[in-house]
Amino acid sequence: MxxxxxxxxxxxxxGLFLVSLISGLALFFHxxxxxxxxxxxxxxxxxILPFGLHVWKNGRPMLGYLRRAPMAIASAxxxxxxxxxxxxxxxxxxxxxxxxPLVLANRVMAHxxxxxxxxxxxxxxxxxxxxxxxxxxxxxxxxxxxxxxTASGKSAFELAAVLNSLAP
Length: 168
Description:
Blueprint: H1 2-28, H2 35-46, H3 48-57, H4 59-66, H5 69-84, H6 100-109, H7 113-120, H8 124-133, H9 145-151, H10 156-166
């Protein structure tokens, strides 16, 4: 059985890396089907197993890399690049409440159909009717849309999709 793992570790790393590469590029450039997001996340997690087998199979050469400066330098640069995405710059990046678009979406959901109707070029009645038709439990034009989503067991994303369909 170990020889089976050894034979397939590198081919699986190659195949899964190519899937991750292509789906990652598609996500970066906002092209391709929506399934690329789940594909990229899940198959990148699956990549951990053959990577671990590859490291196990090539343990001695890996130890040699770990004893030399290029591995330390590459690791430090990789860590710095990763940290650059996590450290807020000038207040324009993610806050404790999340990334700015998500914070804005949550603030919008805190408002009622009556408050959002002018922004959407619609009427409160049309918003309530569309949400009700989509299965949301909206108690009235003055009720918070976020509360309506929660009470209906639906996400803010589902509610936003309905609101988006109303926009001209």
